[in-house]
## 1
Amino acid sequence: MAYIRRQGLRIGAFILLLAAYLANSVLLEFATKYANKNVGLADRFIGAMLIMVAVILVLYTWLYHRQLKRYNPRHFGRQPFNWHRISQLLLLFVLMLAIQIAWSQLITRHLLPMPSNQSALDGQIQQLPFWNTVYGVLIAPVLEECLFRGFFFNFFFSKNSPWSNVFGVFISGLLFGYLHTMTFSVTTLFYASLGWVLAGTYLHFKDLRYSIALHFMNNLWAVL
């Protein structure tokens, strides 16, 4: 009974954290919608989004460090940067690029459909280029890595065992893919594969900053 109650609380907490992130992205969508219709209203939505980002970051940081202090058998934390780790991170970035290039080739050959959310994102960037780019490159990687890697592992797969590690990476990536498409489709597997690389990065380096950096590089490459 205690285990069920504890897991229920964790699921509830994760849903609330996810809802906060999604609500924040909705503010950006409203700002984009009114960018060419009502600049004043769009600016207010951007202001509300930035305030909410600051609040979410403080909340995420506090909860994450609180979780690690309570139970941290994998010794997640801050690992020093050195050339060996940086070279490994660059190789993982190359792996993410290879996945995207392979997927784009399948789309070019009409074997797979173009991701609908990518088309929507391109449209949003055209309407409100600066803030959509800032959000996609700088803000989203931090919030998504805290949510899908930091909290997810510590909430549901905190034990340092092969089973916990493998399933933690798999389910974290799958959830990451689903929330980028909001449906189960072949495109979900594309985003899930990127999520698996990011989750593996967090687990390998045991430092959330590495998966954030990898996510940042990937999103920056996408908008260049």
Note: DSSP finds eight helices and no strands in the chain.
## 2
Amino acid sequence: MLLSSAKFKAEYTITMDDIVREGASVLRTAAEPVPIPLQAEDQEALQCMMQFLKNSQDPEVAVKYKLRSGVGLSANQIGLQKRMFVMYLRDEKGNMVEHAWVNPKVISHSVAMIYLPESEGCLSVDRPVHGFVPRYESVKVKGYNMTGKEVVMKFKGYQAIVVQHEIDHLDGIMFYDRINEENPFKLPQGVEIRSLYEQKSR
């Protein structure tokens, strides 16, 4: 079911009841570009989404609202068919960082790939999914931030995985679409690929 951003005012608390689950058509439909400059309702929706991630990672708040922990959330996961997503996670230095992306586009990426050995998870998927999800080790993304300013940033490692997971959502792609159907633990051939947690050989 498609919703209007107007529902997600800044003071609105997103809970798991607002999260669209797999099988819904909005998760399989490419999201629409967001008009720039951002309208107030889109900015507030992004603020709501970011607060959900922060709440989900706060043990006390997560228990209160029965939230699953998340590091990324796309607009279509709350029923908004708009090209925007948020991230709240640690950077390479271990600091918590938050990113809000509007109309994001990967403009370049590494040849080398990585994957999470425990597979990926998704707030819209309530069942365990096993298998390797190959991702580019680094990506450069161009888009707009919450204030409507154009931004270009490069992400590596875990952050790059999250960015690609969320942009996939905006293109109607689920993470498990990238798992090899015949052998879930088979990795792409002819490309350098390693587990995220393996040290690069020097």
Note: The chain has a mean pLDDT of 94.
## 3
Amino acid sequence: MDDSSLSSTVDVDKGFAIAFVVLLFLFLIVMIFRCVKLVKNPYETTFTTTESSLS
């Protein structure tokens, strides 16, 4: 009886879906900030990436 009441209140698929949406939203926010930084100063961003790969 306790197992059936627990399984009816906890929906694993819904939890995975919510976690996926939250992680996707966080990834989108990070990508927006990176793109804004690139648009504001593209030469500094490309210079630092090439400099770090040469080291």
Note: The CA atoms of residues 39 and 45 lie 9 Å apart.
## 4
Amino acid sequence: MKVLISQEIHPCGPEMLEAAGFEVRLCTSSAPTDHATLMRELPGCAALISMPTDRIDVSVLATAGLRVVAQHAVGYDNIDLAEAERQGVVVTHTPGAVTESTAEMTFALMLALARRLREGDQLVRDGRFLGWHPMNLLGFDLFGSRLGIVGPGRIGSAVAVRAQAFGMEVITHSRNSGMSLARLLRESDIVSLHCPLTEATHHLIDAATLRQMKPTAVLINTARGPVVNEADLVEALERGIIAGAGLDVFEREPAVHPGLLECTNVVLAPHLGTSTIGTRARMAKMAAANAIAVLRGDPPPNRIA
């Protein structure tokens, strides 16, 4: 049986599949594989190892012989789960593999904003560093600040552990626990988003919710881009409604709202939350293990639907 991998992944994944006796077909473009290419390569494959950038719709799921879509990610908002159930296609993902690296990326953005690293780096590169000065690029302390975590699941909880080590106070909001979102926004010095993208969380952060934040507060998003209305965020940053933002994901990736590119109080990263060698290896192994289990007729370790 053939397995299609829609983008190049850590080699341990294809090696596992080949060792299990499956033929691997790999898309190797440096950019996300477009839907037409995916549809051209998929016929004859019993499994697809998909990426969050792939649109897994009825045309993909109705492909003859397809038995499993093994998502190489935790999130799966790109997959039509109802259609997968109708077509009898098993869907899996890689929970747990990305927790620690995404939590670390959250703190990287937090620290970069707090200590104004983007501006400092540019100052040095421009030859404007004249030596130490007591009032140069003053930032804010993480120690003693209040961190509001929206979505205290695996990743949010890992962020909370790190925050406590930094001497921060942690408050949380979720659908079923913690304080109300409005109160969390009012009381937080830093708001960090870790909720999944659903109909309920699409544009959860918009003009109205941004106005509930402190003018000295900053927003961190390592969850999904469309959780934030980028146009509203740009306006809030330009008008001083909030003090800054750190973004690893964007509403219309790979496009970025041009206003964000002009803001000096924003740190932008190209979706690097899980980009470590160890995490990519764990993700590849989990996706391969899920695909192998289904193709062998066994229950997959990480089934979604």
Note: The CA atoms of residues 230 and 257 lie 7 Å apart.
